[in-house]
Amino acid sequence: MNTGHNIYQLTDHLFRQDSGRMVSVLTKIFGLENLETAEDVVQQTFLAAIDSWTLKGIPDSPSDWLFLVARNKAIDIIRKNKHSVSYDFSDSERVLLTSEYTLATSMENLWKEELIKDDMLRMMFASCQPGISPENQITLILKTLCGFSTAEIAKTLLTSEDTISKRLYRTKEFFREHKVKLEIPSVAELKNRTNAVLNSIYLLFNEGYNSFESEQLIRKDLITEALTLCKLLIDNNHTQLPEVFALMALMCFHAARSESRLTEEGDIVLLHYQDRSKWDYDMIELGNCYMSRAAFGNEISPYHLEAAIAFEHCAASNFDKTNWKRILELYEWLCKLSPSPISELNKAVVIMQVEGPEKALESLQQIPDGKKLKKFYLYYSLLGEIHARLKHPDKAKKYFETAIQNTQSEIERKILKEKITCLAN
Amino acid sequence: MKEYLFLFRGGDGSEIQHSPEKWKIHMDRWMEWMNELATKNQFVSAQPLTATGMQITGIKKIVSDGPYLEGKEYVGGYLVCLAENYHAAVEIARDCPILEFEDGVVEIREIKLQK
To answer: What is the pTM of this model?
Structure first.
C-alpha cells in the first residue's frame, strides 16, 4: 500500500507529463469549442486515479491506466452529447464516433501515439492564432499543453491567478466566437503561423532560462517544455522549416550552459566566471546537429543568428578566447535583420569586449528607440559596468542602483549589489 | 447524392462470438466498411439494435411482443448513407460484413423525398 504522499507526487508528475497529450486528443474529439470539457475529463481522470490508487495500489503502467479511463469517460460524453448543438461530430474523422458499431474502435484509433503528437501540434497552432496576444498564447500553452496549474502559471508570469483565469476564459471565448478549428495551417499561411508558434516557444524558453521570478532563476521544467514543443515541429514534416531547426539549436546551446549559471546556493555566476566543465557537451553537440539541419532555404532568420552567437560561446574554452569579433559581426547582422533595442544592448556588451567602454557607450547612445530600455535593468547594469571601466565609480554606482530599482529578482539584485561593493576597490 | 437506408437482418455471428480474436477481426471489418464511407463523406449514421422489441398495432394500439428474435424477420441494425443512385447503393451494400454469414441479409431502401 502506498502512502498518500507518494500518490500525490506521482499524479503531479504524471499530470505534467501526460495531461497535455490527453487534453490535445480530447479537444480533437470534442472540438476546440469544447476545450473546457476536455480539461474536465482530464481533471476527473486524475481524481479517479487518486481514489483508485490509494485504495488498490498503483497500477503497473499508470499512464496507460489514465489514458484508458480518460477514453472511457470520453465515450460516455459522446453518447450523451452526440445530438447536442454544442458538439459537432459530422466531419469524416469523427463521424464514426456517433455509431455504436464503430465508437470503441474509432476511439482506440484516435489515441495512437503518432496521432496525439499531431493533435498537440494543432493545439499549438490554435493557441498561436493571430488575434490572440502573446501573453494569452503562452498562458494557454502552459495550461493545456504543459500541465501547469493556474497558480503555477500566475507565479511564472508574475501576475495573479485571477488575471490568468480571465486570460484563459477570453481565449476560449475567442475560439468559440471565431469558430477556430484544430488544423495545421495551409501551405500559404504555414510560414507565418509557424513563426508565431516559434515565438511562443521562445518566450516560454526565456521564462525558464532567465526567469525573473524571485525564487528560482532557472525553471528547468519550462526549458524542457519548450524543447519538447519545438521537437513536435521538428518531427512533423509539414513544419520542418529552417527557422524551426535554428530555434532548436539556439535553445540547446543555451540550455547546455544551465548548470554553470548558478552557484549551489542559487546565486548568479556571470559568463566570465562560469565553470565551462559543467556545460552539457552532449547538448551542445545536439545543438550542432540542429544547426546543420537549419542550413537550408533562402532566408536566414534571427534564430539562425542568435544560434550562431550562442554557438560561439559554447565553442570557446574560456571567456577571453571567445571569438568576440565574430560575435560582433553576428550582432550587427542581427540588428539589421531584426532591429530591437535589446539586440542593440547585447551588441553594446560585445562592443565593450572588442573595442572598449568608450565605444560601447557611444553605441548605447545611438540606439534607435532607446527609450524602450528605460525600465530595463540590464541597460542600467551595462551603463554601470561601462562607467566602472571608465573609472567613474560614482556614476557607476548610480547606474547599478537604478538597475536594482528596475528588477524584482532578489538574485539579480544580489549580484548588482556585489558590483557596487566591488567599486570601492 | 441520395440517401439510402440499409436494414441488417440475421448474421448475428453466433458462430464466432465465443472467439475473441475472430470477433475482433469481424468488428474491424465493420469499421473498415463504414470508414470507407466516412472518408468519402457518404456516411450518415448507423446503429446496432438490441434484441428486445415490442409492437403496437393499429387504431386499437394493440401491444404485443415481437418481432421474432430468430430468423430473417428480426432487424439487427441499420445504416444510412449517401450514394449516387440505387445501383451505387447496392454496390456499397455488397461489401457489408454481415454477408460473411450465410443468414446475413442487407435490405437496401431509398429514402423517399415527399413532394
So the answer is: 0.85
